[in-house]
Specification:
2 copies of one chain form a homodimer. Chain A has 410 residues and is α+β, with helices and mostly antiparallel strands. Helix content of chain A is 35%, strand content 24%.
Chain lengths: 410, 410
């Protein structure tokens, strides 16, 4: 049965939601608990109501819209996050919020009351763009993984705690535990791909069978600062030269294993950072990802071995922390199968793929069966006002989501 | 004839001069035209007077002390700079100022009026530690190489121009051309080595036969920022990976040619410098030095070829500027011979060596015959409050300087 989704409605919702925190021509700057965020969540709640869903804001600020099923029971939910990068674009997160709204509205209009209860959700925070020490605030609240002290400890650049920011918008951080859900059976998130694979393969849609693991190392490499002219090469303990060799080696590990392994050195700080001084210390990050749980262990072990070996051979001290360490999150095979069946049924070309980025879904996977739908990203761009997903591709992805929900809930 | 230098006097002068701008236990923070600088130059002028020299401050703030010769004619001068790093130590520059004072005082006391005129000088600025866009302000004034617009253009971190800073201490930048000297025949600078070579060879003194060339490249390497997870390795244009290969290669050029070639990558700036983003741009410095004029041309050519080759192979854009490009400065062979003869005569072990750092001497070499004397640096340290030259080594170097001046001027 072909699901018809209103392309005009999708386009209008994308543009209207992007007004809240509009940045330049096509950008969005909408951080958690900001006035723009309040306006956007209020807008979503109003749209939920207009679509015939029962709208409510939970204790952490997620906005839910419920289409109650005739049989009740555990819930099938869909959605994504409402906050953006600084600046971000119109699609990252927002498209998944709109997709949930459009899917439930379409199902209600075309098929009436479902057998099982469906919910759409606009999650409050995912990007860590305002509160750098956290992310997944909305989905962590849903699975009960916000620690009691966090609302006071996590602060934005102006020093405001996330708890104070919540109070400013009428939310009581003491009540965060009330946002916990223990009645979710299935969660499906639609999101833009944020990468080039679908575009390169000329496919509008991806069915996500795993979210990659992500580990961030923060590495300190310490040598000895020396005068760039007066100290001969032979006696140097140059952490920059050591860093260069390490960066080449750890990136080389991902190049050698080939896709889907990726490794990025994205941040580097050099001290004292002077043209005429051999540095004293280089601090850098290593972002190492692989969607396969066994492969990633081998990847980390090889990279750590290389870092130790190179530093040791050069007489440099090395140490690291891993402030972010998310395991790979395989999708539920029955949900993946439902998505694939729906795509085939709707005649929409797709491929199975992993997600190279992290998503709220990997938190919700702790309490529900999950999978994701990707929509093609122009030029693979994301986290920028230039990110773009065509209305046609957005509609194709929403049709796959809607058809899947119909199959599961009716 | 053995020259006797008063070690107690040398030690006292080092400690007293270091009071002006004292920083912590052993450091000095004395930038050009600061109140500490004024006090230090006034102190030096007073010491010149007490030593029987005719003291005067020139139009740029250099302080000269003259011991007129019975025959007059072109001048034989010695000295170094009074300003420091931020913070620096007690010896860099200051020891050469004190050495000139002690040498002329000793000669006058022990040998009376010279045949040729001797001058000691405390140069106003060498380190570029306050006005980052310049250095060698004192010696450039002496050779007439300060451009008319510079006093207004060069500013410190607070936005004050070097011309305004001069006016604050009673100097008129319009009169800088009056500091030019066309009557210098010989200039000898005593300086701490700032490197480990004399210490490693257990020698108190070095006779400098050349000052290295110094070229600073500022290199921009531009790729394309991408999501660290969503963009596979294969399609990346990663300027950080390119930077790592380039840094290894250009440092490798100096390692392969061996001493005295040196190459340092000391400053790196990454944009956007985020753990989860392939960078867009890496800007870095390359400090490439060699004391031999032909060898350095080959070194630069090879390094430029490697940078272009690596960037090109990786699809990265590369461009650079060379904001600092000082040619190698060979010492005058007759002055070197006089220094070596004096060291031998005084029974002081020494070696000939090049200077890996830049010095005022390389400017004054444009109008006079020059050479330098190095005093051993503990642990090769410099540009830090921990820099140290023992009183014994300072006295040994001053004896070589004094004996040389005696030989040349009496």
């Amino acid at each position: 049965m072909v699901i018809d989704v209103d392309a005009g409605l999708v386009e209008r919702l994308i543009l209207e939601l992007a007004r809240h925190g509009a940045y330049g021509e096509t950008g969005v700057w909408r951080t958690a608990y900001s006035p723009e965020w309040v306006a956007a969540q209020d807008q979503v709640a109003a749209w939920f109501g207009e679509a015939g869903l029962e709208a409510r804001r939970d204790a952490v600020g997620n906005v839910w819209g419920t289409l109650a099923g005739s049989e009740g029971g555990p819930v099938i939910a869909t959605g994504s996050h409402i906050d953006s990068q600084t600046p971000g674009g119109r699609y990252d997160g927002a498209l998944g919020v709109i997709a949930g709204l459009v899917a439930l509205r379409t199902l209600r209009e075309q098929f009436g009351t479902p057998r099982r209860t469906l919910e759409a959700v606009s999650l409050c925070e995912e990007e860590a763009s305002r509160f750098h020490a956290t992310n997944f605030w909305g989905s962590r609240a849903i699975v009960g993984e916000i620690a009691p002290g966090e609302p006071d400890q996590i602060r934005d650049r102006d020093g405001m705690s996330i708890g104070e920011a919540m109070r400013e918008v009428g939310l009581d951080p003491e009540r965060i535990p009330e946002a916990r859900r223990d009645d979710l059976d299935i969660f499906i998130e639609l999101h833009i791909e944020q990468g080039p694979i679908l575009e390169e393969e000329r496919l509008p849609v991806g069915v996500v069978d795993a979210i990659t693991s992500i580990r961030h190392y923060v590495i300190e490499l310490r040598g000895r600062s020396d005068h760039a002219g007066a100290r001969p090469m032979a006696g140097r303990l140059d952490p920059l030269a050591g860093f260069a060799e390490i960066a080449t080696a750890v990136i080389g590990v991902a190049l050698e294993s080939g896709a889907p392994a990726v490794t990025t050195v994205g941040r580097v700080e050099v001290e004292p950072n002077l043209p005429s001084a051999v540095p004293d210390k280089v601090t850098f990050t290593l972002d190492s990802r692989h969607p396969d749980r066994q492969a990633v262990d081998a990847q980390h072990a090889r990279q750590e071995q290389l870092m130790r070996e190179i530093a040791g051979r050069r007489g440099l001290e090395i140490s690291w922390t891993t402030p972010l360490d998310l395991p790979a999150c395989p999708s539920d095979s029955s949900v993946v199968a439902a998505l694939e069946q729906a795509a085939t049924e709707q005649g929409i070309p797709y491929r199975r793929m992993h997600s190279g980025a992290g998503h709220d879904t990997q938190n919700i996977a702790k309490v529900a069966k999950t999978a994701m739908v990707f929509a093609r990203s122009k030029d693979g761009r994301s986290h920028t006002p230039e990110e773009l997903t065509s209305v046609e591709d957005a509609v194709a992805a929403i049709r796959v989501l809607t058809a899947t929900l119909r199959q599961l809930a009716y």
